[in-house]
Amino acid sequence: MKKQLLIKSLLISFMCLFGNLSFAAIDWVGNMFPSSGSSSEIAVGSSLDVYVQVYKAGTTESSGQGAGISCETYHSEVFSFGGTWQSTFTQAMTYNVDIGNNDEYQGSLTPIAAGSYEFTCRCSDDGGYSLELSYNFFLEKGNKDGGSVMFS
Description:
Blueprint: H1 2-18, E1 28-33, E2 39-42, E3 48-55, E4 70-78, E5 85-92, E6 94-99, E7 102-109, E8 115-124, E9 132-133, E10 147-151
Parallel strand pairs: 2-10
Antiparallel strand pairs: 1-3, 3-7, 4-5, 4-8, 6-7, 8-9, 8-10
């Protein structure tokens, strides 16, 4: 009961922060690399390649990019890892390859300032009006899947 109440309150908080957000008809987003709990340190001006897989029944099983699917990285500077996200940024990802029934997308993070950042990926099947995050602790669809990087 407490867990359900916490999940509902997190979902309501998330929706208040990001407006009237609906979730995509995508079945699954995950296998993000670098993955949850990973931490990288790279030089300012360099980039960090990020990958995520997406599955939508009837769309991603065939060879090549599934029609109408798009993904993006979603990242923010943080004062401490696990802390509050400051201004958030998105970066479009490109289709990379098929992996089984999933489509894999690749993107790069290239913040311009030194600092600590957290990131995840999100995908859509309707031009971005509804999104499926790769860390869906709001809906218990999988493990929290996000990473952190320090640009120095």
